[in-house]
Design goal:
Keywords: Lyase. GO terms for molecular function: ornithine cyclodeaminase activity. InterPro entries: NAD(P)-bd_dom_sf, ODC_Mu_crystall, ODC_N. This protein has 338 residues and is α/β, with parallel strands linked by helices. The protein has two domains: 143 residues, ornithine cyclodeaminase, domain 1; 171 residues, NAD(P)-binding Rossmann-like Domain (Rossmann fold, 3-Layer(aba) Sandwich), CATH 3.40.50. The protein contains ten helices and 17 strands. Strands 9-8-7-10-12-16-14-15 form an eight-stranded parallel beta sheet. The chain is globular. The two termini are 20 Å apart.
Length: 338
């Protein structure tokens, strides 16, 4: 039998644990796996692109466990009442190849993306950062705001979206968050006085969400929305002014902001900063950019955290995902049973 964590299971687990604790503990698993980065099999995600969006598989493994996530990105889905991103994931035993856990990952991806963003900011943003600007108030926005409050100590959020209904939704969801929220009239107004700027838009196109003249000294940019070929959010001049940090260069050069730059454009890998092999922020005046596209090890960490968390609880069910004949050489015999 394979353990299965469905949407209802995960919602109940987060309610029981508390979203703040869940994000903090999840960030710890992600950080620990970044610290052992060389132990993982790594490859850019396998993507199937269409005019409407993309469907991707994101695999990775260490010596004991193999994990993958199925995820889509279809910006036009919301016009049909569907979500832009949906996902599920599997964690398997390397020694036998048997799956151990099957989980929903639409919610879990939102949580791990926010946890990774805030974790990176702990290493790259100024320690006294308290004001965050957020451009794009779709499905990821509340998760980002919560994670930055919990993990970085953000107290004020200045937000902007081209759709006023998105801003209204964000304010309703975050009314009890303890954050001071200002709804700006433009992205230019939103970034005024911000220590951290998060861009998390969904349209699959090259866009200039942030232009160079909007970015002052000392800002940390958390660029989340650019995550596939042909989709960017930052003007290239910003990348030239700041220092860029990435998860896995081979993937980020295809999908991230740095797809705009030459192949030899210098970047620093986040795992090297976390382990102390490379410098993070070097001064209070430096501009730091986390060119985040999401990498498979973060999903692996999330699945590993979830599997540990649900043991001995009622937050999963068991399903007969794998055929189990009494004689493993007699698979056909299962079809002859009544």
């Amino acid at each position: 039998m394979v353990q299965y964590v469905g949407v209802g299971n995960l919602i109940s687990l987060v309610h029981a644990v508390g979203v703040e604790t869940f994000l903090s503990e999840l960030a710890g698993f992600i950080e620990n796996d970044f610290r052992r980065w060389p132990e993982f099999d790594k490859t850019p995600r396998v993507a199937s692109h269409s005019a409407e969006g993309v469907i991707e598989l994101m695999p990775t493994a260490d010596a004991a466990l193999y994990g993958f996530k199925y995820v889509n990105g279809h910006p036009g889905n919301t016009r049909q009442g569907l979500q832009t991103v949906t996902a599920f994931g599997v964690l398997s035993d390397v020694a036998s190849g048997y799956p151990l856990l099957l989980s929903e990952m639409t919610l879990l991806t939102a949580l791990r993306t926010a946890a990774t963003s805030a974790l990176a900011a702990r290493y790259l943003a100024r320690p006294d950062s308290r004001v965050m600007a957020m451009i794009g108030l779709g499905a990821q926005s509340e998760f980002q705001a919560t994670a930055f409050r919990v993990l970085l100590g953000i107290t004020h959020v200045r937000v902007y979206d081209v759709d006023p209904a998105a801003a209204e939704k964000f304010c309703q969801n975050m009314a009890e968050s303890g954050l001071e929220i200002l709804v700006a009239r433009s992205s230019q107004e939103a970034v005024l006085g911000a220590d951290v700027i998060t861009t998390v838009t969904a349209d699959k196109l090259k866009a200039t969400i942030l232009s160079d003249n909007m970015i002052g000294a000392g800002v940390h940019i958390n660029a989340v929305g650019g995550d596939c070929p042909g989709k960017t959010e930052l003007q290239a001049d910003i990348l030239r002014r700041g220092r860029v940090f990435v998860e896995y260069p081979e993937q980020t050069r295809i999908e991230g902001e740095i797809q705009q730059m030459p192949e030899d454009f210098p970047v620093t890998e986040l795992w090297q900063v976390i382990t102390g092999e490379a410098e993070g922020r070097r001064s209070g005046q430096e501009i730091t950019i986390f060119d985040s596209v999401g990498f498979a090890t973060e999903d692996f960490s999330a699945l590993r955290y979830l599997r540990d968390k649900v043991q001995g609880t009622g937050f999963y069910t068991e399903i007969d995902l794998v055929a189990e004949p009494e004689d493993p050489r007699n698979l056909f015999g299962l079809l002859q049973q009544n």
